[in-house]
UniProtKB/TrEMBL annotation:
UniProt cofactor(s): Mg(2+); Mn(2+)
Subunit relationships: Homodimer.
InterPro entries named in the record: IsoCit/isopropylmalate_DH_CS (IPR019818), IsoPropMal-DH-like_dom (IPR024084), LEU3_arc (IPR011828)
One Pfam family, short name: Iso_dh
Protein family: Belongs to the isocitrate and isopropylmalate dehydrogenases family.
Name the record gives this protein: 3-isopropylmalate dehydrogenase
EC primary class: oxidoreductase
MF-aspect GO terms: 3-isopropylmalate dehydrogenase activity; isocitrate dehydrogenase (NAD+) activity; magnesium ion binding; NAD binding
Length: 331
């Protein structure tokens, strides 16, 4: 099993080494393939990701990714969008579940939402043009993409509370009707209870009553925004992991960005990257090991071994050392 390891830029260079220390506790038969991608590579070579890099990734089974800085330059090729598209990692899975001991902006801890985001099209199609007076982006919605993301969402819903919320804006953006109707058809065929929410109403209601929601399926942009909003509900973007899943390959990353303002200061929260390792372990069919990682995170918070974004005063290294010790003593 080959695991590509991409630290990327900014705090990615701090949180991915931390995540690897936790992963290495389990002594799994993983061949790690380090790869440099992102803004730092673009500054040196003029390319953030090359065709050769993509070939390496295509020859790996899974990817552990940190974060990349994306400059406001029309010639910069998005690393994330390129990987997701080229490897057809069409399902972005983002759990929004509070961790005991941490409260978000509303104080509500009685929710467990799973955002299932279509990952390959929508407004992230990369078909766009920026001119002096006019700029446009082409938004693509296809039945095939809608069907397969709805299928994934329904499979998750069936394992949970069997409820699916379909997010759309078809009252204004008529292309959303294809997403909405296709998801409804798939949900009905799977006997999954479902409802639909306009994306603006959904954002409001997620803050007001997050406990109402189970699995949420959304087009690319809506899912991106709603899951980041979920970071405020959980307590920090530094707590949110994610997975990008395809038919045969998978890509795991923290939801947060490269955070250049705190990079190199030793205060980056490694928990999202480490919980992304837990999602990787689930994908590898190692649920017991994944559970140990999640219990380690809860233990660190219970012991107040936390970085500043969570109200603690521990460094990245101190949090990592605690988690590694916990995992080693429980596996």
């Amino acid at each position: 099993m080959k695991l590509a390891v991409i630290e990327g830029d900014g705090v990615g260079k701090e949180v991915i080494p931390a995540a690897l220390q936790v992963l290495d506790c389990f002594d799994l038969p993983l061949e790690k393939i380090p790869l440099e991608l992102g803004y730092g590579k673009w500054e040196k070579t003029g390319q953030a990701i090359t065709d050769a890099d993509l070939e390496i990734l295509k020859n790996c089974d899974c990817i552990l990714f940190g974060a990349v800085t994306t400059p406001a330059d029309p010639n910069y090729k998005s690393v994330l969008l390129t990987i997701r598209r080229e490897l057809d990692l069409y399902a972005n899975i983002r759990p929004l579940k509070p961790i005991k001991g941490i409260k978000g902006v509303t104080g509500n801890t009685d929710f467990d939402i799973l955002v299932v985001r279509e990952n390959t099209e929508g407004l992230y199609s990369s078909i766009e043009e920026v001119g002096t007076d006019t700029a446009w982006s082409k938004r693509i919605i296809t039945r095939r993409a809608c069907e397969r993301i709805a299928q994934v969402a329904c499979e998750y819903a069936a394992k949970r509370a069997n409820h699916l919320t379909i997010v759309h804006k078809s009252n204004v953006i008529k292309a959303d009707s294809l997403f909405l109707n296709t998801c409804r058809d798939v949900a009905q065929s799977h006997n999954v209870i479902h409802n639909a929410m306009l994306v603006d109403a959904m954002a409001y209601d997620m803050v007001r009553s997050p406990e109402k929601y189970d699995v949420v399926v959304a087009p690319n942009l809506y899912g991106d925004i709603l899951s980041d909003l979920g970071g405020a509900l959980v307590g920090s973007l530094g707590l949110l992991p994610s997975a990008n899943i395809g038919e045969k390959k998978a890509f795991f990353e923290p939801v947060h960005g490269s955070a250049p303002d705190i990079a190199g200061k030793g205060i980056a929260n490694p928990i999202a990257a480490i919980l992304s390792v837990a999602m990787l372990l689930d994908w590898l069919d190692k649920p017991e090991q994944a559970l140990i990682v999640r219990e380690a995170v809860e233990a660190s918070i219970n012991e107040n071994i936390m970085t500043a974004d969570l109200g603690g005063n521990s460094t990245t290294v101190q949090v990592t050392e605690f988690l590694v010790h916990y995992v080693q003593s429980h596996c």
